[in-house]
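Reopening this one. Same input as before:
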Amino acid sequence: MSRFTNPLTQDKSNSVLLTISCFTAVFPHFFHTTAWVIGGSSFALIWRLWLVMTGRKLPATLLLLPYVCLMMAGVWISFHTFLGKEAGVTMLILLISCKLLEMHAKRDLYVAVFLAYFLLLTSYLYNQTIFSGTLSILSVLLLTTSLSTFQYTSVIPPLSERLSASVRMLLTAIPVMLIGFFLFPRIPGPLWGLPSDEGHGKSGLSDSLNPGNISDLALNEDIAFRVKFHNYPKDKSVLYWRGIVLDDYDGRSWKASAQSKASTGQTPPSLTSKSGIISYDITLEPHQKKWLFGLDMPESAPAIPGNPALITPNMELRANTPVISRQHYSLRSYTAYHFSKNIDPAERQLNTLLPHSTNPKTRLFAQQLRKQSTSDVQYIQAILAYFTNQQFEYTLHPGKAGLHAIDEFLFVNKKGFCEHYASAFTFLMREAGIPARIVTGYQGGMQNPIDDYFEVRQSDAHAWTEVWLPATGWTRIDPTATIAPERIHQSFYQANSARGFAAVVSSVFQNQSWPQYVQMYWDATNNEWNQWILGYGQQKQENLLRSFDFDQLDLQKTGIAAASAASALFVAAALISVLRRRKQLNAESLYKAFCEHMAARGVAKAAHESPTIFLERIKQTLPKEELHNIEEFLHYYSRYCYAGHNDNEQASFTRLKNILYRIQHEQ
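Same output, byte for byte:
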């Protein structure tokens, strides 16, 4: 028969509980750490469980030490240091897993539990989602239950009772948690962020444009930012979210020139005629870069506490420091506008430059069309007509490009995504002497009917062209709208058939809409979490305190308010504890008299015995007919002292005294 078929002893079940508790603290790190760390940690935890289930001894030091040294060597090879966030957290993951294999005293149990508590805290350096918060509560509950298990010296209560006790302890900590959350002084920037976070970029737009850059994002459904419109635009085709302007072309990729990166000020430097104002709030997800996004064209730079924003000469919104935490800001934008009709000679020269000896067919084609056109507008219309009449295809898979990528796109493949059309169109404009540049950002988005937030995803990434015309200045022209107009009025997934897992879901559910509604509810829930929990910063804290007539707030006053509230809570808890202790002292005088009576009957209570254990020994000594009052007394004593009840306290004490009287006078 297998060793695993035998029921677990108390020690084994406690060891299993400890191992599982520690695993719940390690598990959140599996989503960001490397495969060898996951494998090494999992191996140690499984090894520990196997030893418990089979009843084998823990490994000897000579066997465990080489394994620990191997894990530490892995940390050094991966990070070249044992310090810092990444290396330190990795060491904690491995050490807590190995610590479960090296336990010789009760002290080691405490070390493992408190290491797990600390490791659980470090998981918030990487993730603060609803899922991670829920997992943290479960882990704290199991770790607290494990910790309480080690406190018992005699009979250990069932697991359900220990879990219930842990739940009650956590519930009593909620008031302190709420005070800390709402009143602890908030500082600008991410509470859990570290300077090293800037080096860990997330998927999103780049500050350069190569063939395939944006098409790689088309299948990425991560949220880029959320928008709360104060007046929703009626025409979705105006939803161009301006991001990065690329005006330097080297023959292969488009980049932002040094001139375009220069800061300007809070308001657009060259907007003249403007109308169609749209007011909205943006919640921008962290992307580790300085650029911000706004509806084309923003009225002014947003006011972001702790991270001032400016507008560049190319009308980009830029933050002072990289966006390493979720940012909230408000904007007003014009959907109809004109730039200044004058263009600086240096700006004109920059936006007409092309590298020599590239795309000769495209150059010749542009020269021929230019000769046939009587104006810049007619030339632009001729290019767009060429895209329409030559049956170009809007696709994610245009194939690999060679040395003359634009020649191949325009005259051979005729397949591409938005960056291919924008790049070719801008090249054709510059070859004709018309200043042109590429703008990358997002186009469109989708309204979530659950919370009325407008969600812009990475799959909405888009590129278009701006050309300078004498009558209007810089003017947006989107050649993609000519090839695939449905892309401008719908999101990418709406405009294209489902692929991959989405196609499987559609086929299984016969195109029913409820999976989409589930996704919408989940997105709305995450948004509420981001807005009210993760988004609770310095500004919201000040607004909360001002609602209670706290004016001219600073860190010192906020700290005093938090300390005062916590102190008041602790004083209230102390008073409750004192009153409860008085009740227990009154009951203990009766219990002491009961124990003296039992000692006179020949059953003396040992110092370490609980009422339950004492009762079991009494049952083995006294006649059965005398046990009814004794059982009632001990049961009611425990209930009176610890369980709580709705009876009048004096009446309950009187009842307990009457039961003792019957026991003392029983013959």
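So the earlier flakiness isn't reproducible anymore. For the record, Confidence is low (pLDDT under 50) at residues 1-6, 191-201, 492-512.
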